[in-house]
Amino acid sequence: MKINTIMGKNLYLEPMKEKTYSFLVKWLSDSNIIKFLDDSECNLTLEEVKKIYPLYHVNEKNILFSIIEKNSDQIIGICGIQKIDKNKKNAFLRIIIGDTNFWDGKTALESEKLLLQFTFNDLKLNKIYSIINVNNNGQALLVERLGMKKDGISRNHFIQNGKYVDANLYSILSNEFRDF
Fold it and tell me: Could you give the CA distance from residue 98 to residue 67 in angstroms, rounded to a whole number?
């Protein structure tokens, strides 16, 4: 399956390419950006980043996009779906806005709307889920704005700074999603 660029109003999602890895290595070493991530995803080598964020042609269970700001054509983050289960028709939602100049909520919202449109309309998946650190209120508000419902809490889901942290579980079904 060929994955195309997805155009939005202020940004576009381009299938992730090798050039994005250098940004990811930098972002995943920035304490401000990684403050809600699991320790296992932080301060990684290039090889480790490639395993967690594989390109689609390497691993078809992951479709990742670079988030590109239209005016500058600059990579400002990544988003995508991982752990795609074609039998159950579900996948895990992933987003990292690495350029802190775009931490306005609008960029992440537009990115995830485009991603959900793609997963439900093009891939015909039934459910997208998200696992969010309980301390990441901004991400929780974002997925709720997208129409995701809180399914529960996964206790001791993440390890942050050597300590266990709970996670909120969210999901949205294809019949619940509304194109905005």
Answer: 10
The residue that leads in pLDDT, 1 or 46, is 46
Name the fold adopted by 6-173.
Answer: Aminopeptidase (3.40.630)
The residue among 51, 48, 15 whose CA lies nearest residue 29 is 48
Ordered alpha helix ranges (H), the chain: 20-27, 46-52, 106-117, 137-145
Q: How confident is the model at residue 1 (pLDDT cuts 50, 70, 90)?
A: confident
Q: Where are the domains of the chain?
A: 6-173
| Predicted structure pTM score | 0.93
Structure tokens at 34: 């990684």
Q: How far apart are CA 5 and CA 82, in angstroms?
A: 18
In angstroms, rounded to a whole number, what is the distance separating the alpha carbons of residues 3 and 122? 10
Residue closest to 111 by CA, chosen among 13, 36, 3, 5: 13
